[in-house]
Design brief:
Elements: H1 12-24, H2 28-41, H3 46-58, H4 62-75, H5 80-92, H6 96-109, H7 114-126, H8 130-143, H9 148-164, H10 167-177
């Protein structure tokens, strides 16, 4: 991929693939370098600002990541992913109420946004609102039935419910879990 990114003949799909590869192999510093270079070459490309935010997020530089996601939204305000990413940062920083408000705002415009549904379920779970969390996670899983992350989140919620809630709600949660 790197050979396709030299000189003036920048190959956007190669850049995206290489960026993804860096993040998947645990090399956010290289992803950051690539995203920084791309953002400098193409400052009005929202995708590169978003990649910059993702690489900073992976390096746990949340304040800088949030700024990059905000730049992405300034370039392309109708993209839900950077807004979801900002809400995830808010959640990581224990601003759960703020994160929930952000995610619900995203869902009011796009009620089928998988990432917003899943993260709303996670935030609600952290807030102890298990029943509502399960509804969001179940809806997300219906949209992306192969999502390992969503399945993990539901298992965590079910384990929590089993340990701390009534037998009645546990049976409800288990009924949601059964995918037909």
């Amino acid at each position: 991929y790197e050979s396709l990114l030299k000189g003036k003949n920048w190959h956007h799909p190669a850049a995206q693939n290489l960026f993804d590869l860096y993040l998947q192999t645990g090399d956010p510093a290289s992803a950051f370098k690539l995203a920084t270079r791309a953002a400098e070459l193409f400052p009005i490309e929202a995708a590169y600002q978003n990649q910059l935010g993702l690489s900073l997020f992976a390096m746990e530089q949340f304040d800088e990541a949030e700024k990059a996601f905000e730049r992405t939204l300034a370039l392309h305000p109708d993209l839900p992913a950077p807004a979801v990413n900002i809400a995830v940062i808010q959640s990581k920083q224990n601003s759960l109420g703020k994160a929930l408000k952000s995610l619900r705002a995203i869902l009011s415009n796009n009620p089928n946004d998988y990432l917003a549904l899943q993260n709303c379920g996670v935030v609600l779970s952290k807030l102890g609102q298990s029943e509502e969390a399960e509804i969001y996670l179940a809806t997300a899983l219906k949209q992306e039935p192969e999502s390992f992350e969503c399945v993990q989140n539901r298992i965590g919620l079910i384990n929590y419910v089993e340990k701390y809630s009534s037998a009645y709600f546990y049976e409800q949660a288990m009924a949601f879990w059964r995918i037909k």
